[in-house]
User: Fold these one by one.
Assistant:
Number 1:
Amino acid sequence: MAELNIVLFEPEIPSNTGNIGRTCVATGTRLHLIEPLGFHLTEKAVKRAGMDYWGDLDVRRYSNYEDFLEKNPGAKIYMATTKARQTYTEVHYEPDCYIMFGKESAGIPEEILLQNKETAVRIPMTGETRSLNLSNSVAIVLYEALRQNQFDHMKLEGQLHRYEWQSCRGEKRKRRRSRKEW
């Protein structure tokens, strides 16, 4: 089973972290937070963005990057950065890998990137756009890693609430579900 990990290096905006936490819960992904954080995890903005999912989140905190490395020895870490030479689709994400994202204002420190140049990845953008929103970037790269791992452990089919999908191709009529079936 894929056990992917998202790592946030010194995140600054609580709503981004809350949104990322919700994405992690929805995908069965562990969230790692490297301090210092630019907010308190008790802030309403974090919980509002994560909504009622925050209690289900598998989250780990670290006092700094060295603490993270010590507690996760041998971790394969991909560094998501606008400075990378390869795109996020050009690498193979192992089922237990870590994908790290930097703080909103500065990204991952270049000293760390230099030590991990082979695993640094970027999301392509046009023009002089500085970066995408952090929570959007996490979702883009995480779902590529999940896709590469065949969306292991994830629900692949949805259900309508008031109707049923028909198994026959070309069938346009849908049977309306009664309220008792919801």
Note: The domain at 5-156 is CATH 3.40.1280.10 (Alpha/beta knot).
Number 2:
Amino acid sequence: MALRVWDPIRDTVSLSDVMPTLFENAWVRPGSVFGGSVPMMPLDVEESGDGYTVKASLPGFRPEDVDVTVTGDTLTITAQHKEEQENKDRNYLLKERRFGKVTRTITLPSSLQTDSVQARYENGELILTLPKDEALRPRQIPITSGQQNTLTGGQSSAQVIDHQPAELAHA
């Protein structure tokens, strides 16, 4: 085997060659740094003109294990599994189920009507309907003319009068 002399110019890897793999290998799943896994609560948040719909995946939780709090524009969902009593007589071959609390807090773009929030839980999914504050909802503004006729978006109370000269009307 022949010895090769190290050439720093030839043996250097360019930054552009390393960047794609650097970022691919840099992403770490939450909790994997410490060897465990952090319970996640995936959410879908949808906005409509009237408010928001939030869907949270909470498989294995019962409705009484879930707590929802709304303050202004902030939504907090907390769910907690109670750990089973430790039984020393059991010989587990595998024990992967996690117990404990998972919390998710998000800030929505506008304030909410906290007294009108609705929550429904079915098949491991929490579905929240969060209406926007009335003051922040878009409203149709009526427009009035000086003649006390009310006009609304694109409607007119004026009559169209055809002013054609008589000789053109008979032509």
Note: Residues 37-84+94-136 form a domain with the Immunoglobulin-like fold (CATH 2.60.40.790).
Number 3:
Amino acid sequence: MAEDFGRDIGAAERMVREWQDRAAEKAEKFTRLQQQVENIAVTESSRDGAIRVTVASSGMLQDLQLADNADNRPMARLGADIMRLVQQAQAKIPGQMQQAVEDTVGMGDSAAQHVLDQARRHFPEPPPEEEPPARGGRNEIRTPVEDAAQPPRRPQPPQQSPGRRRPDDFDDEDFGNGSFLR
């Protein structure tokens, strides 16, 4: 009977050592995954090379470079082009993260799958590129047009709330309406 007890303890010790080894190996793989993900950066450029953006694995803009010819476009279009490039770069992050997962922990790990699902949710494919309407290079401000059929409204004087007393209604018996400096 003592012999069986020794075998059971030996088996338990081996099982604990194997579990510790697997845990240490998994921790080392996730450390490598974290390092690879932190090093992910995606760069996108406009067709004419006037705009270049780089985003980190977090999706944050790391770098924005505008060439001299970038100012040839209207400001609204420049802003839209920058945002489109940022979205295009962000959309590539999940693919690069997937490659990092495959290279380190493997696609079978549920925690890694969760990380990839979150990346896909936060960085979806950008909307299709739309050409903005030609505007002749001016910035326009549009104001609402008032309806000519309605007469203009007169401003209404502010109304006093019924519960407030006006300053000249104070009942100050100490000094009356005169100065206290007599």
Note: Residues 11-122 form a domain with the Ybab; Chain: A; fold (CATH 3.30.1310.10).
Number 4:
Amino acid sequence: MGTLNAQLERVALEVQKIIDRDLAGEDAARLKRLCTDLINRGGNNPAADIAPVRETIAFLGEKWTGLVFYLLAAGPIRYSLLRRLVSAISVLGGDQGISERMMTLTLRRLERDGFASRAIFPAVPPRTEYRLTPLGHALHEQFLLVVQWLEGHRADIALARSRYDEAANG
């Protein structure tokens, strides 16, 4: 525990030095509070406690995960139907569809993280269905809030991108 506290103190001091070197006043105080909050969220093992959060956020933002996750909320759905739906809808975004390998990897990761479950039914050929778990449904509620916010700010985002691109391209 002493080593952990020493490490946390070293990180906190380094963050403070970096902020103090570049900022002052309320901006510096606000950033220090934010960084301190992030460091303190780590509990007894900051690296181990913070890493899964970052990994999950990154995974949910990957190309196929959001759409697969969104569609799983409809209830039990067969693998083949889910893959066809993801491929059909992805055409709207200019994609060619999801490969079988990527679909399998995405579903396995959702299952590994506890957001989805898989059921295999004996049949010829075998039938596999996926559904959100209670944890997945809880996250889905929050996910929808982000989706709704993004939909409501689509024009703002497009304008910001346009302004940025104009400035970047001279």
Note: The two ends are 54 Å apart (CA to CA).
